[in-house]
């Protein structure tokens, strides 16, 4: 575990420590609506290697977590098709906070309030290390991508849409 500067523990970092999973801590200056792009810029890491943690729900209002490249959007139609749902849509910020236990802008996929299935954009698993929220605004952690499919149990999907609303490279 690398500790550059002391950062107070979050449910996510507590869970990672309990599981003996090494992680790096990367605090940055939070900017409202800056998202993954702002975090990547401040930390000097590739935006495509930063994972957004999104809380969504299916047609029966069952919540789920989606980890997506910081520079891509989620095709909810493809996500529904690949997960066996009829329809998937993003949760409202209040609903997302109720499901995850984290404030929007600080949502981590680790140690969520409700147990939810986790889906990860397959391309994130191609990196040795990924950056994702550590459970508070202005705080990313880095973990081995194998932690996502291993300890977290995330299942890979291919649902990324680039800036033009098309699959990256299409």
Report on the architecture of this protein.
Keywords: Lyase, Protein biosynthesis. This protein is an alpha/beta fold. Helix content is 22%, strand content 28%. The strands form 2 sheets. Strands 1, 2, 3, 5, 6, 7, 8 and 9 form an 8-stranded mixed sheet that branches. Strands 4-10 form a two-stranded antiparallel ribbon. The radius of gyration is 15 Å and the shape is globular. The N and C termini lie far apart (38 Å).
Q: How far do the termini sit from each other?
A: 38 Å
Query: Roughly what fraction of the amino acids lie in strands?
Result: 25-35%
- The low-confidence parts are 164-170
Mean pLDDT comes to 92
Count of DSSP E strands? 10
Helix content: 10-25%
- Shape designation: globular
Largest sheet at a glance? 8 strands, mixed
Broad structural category: alpha/beta
**C-alpha Rg, in Å?**
15 Å
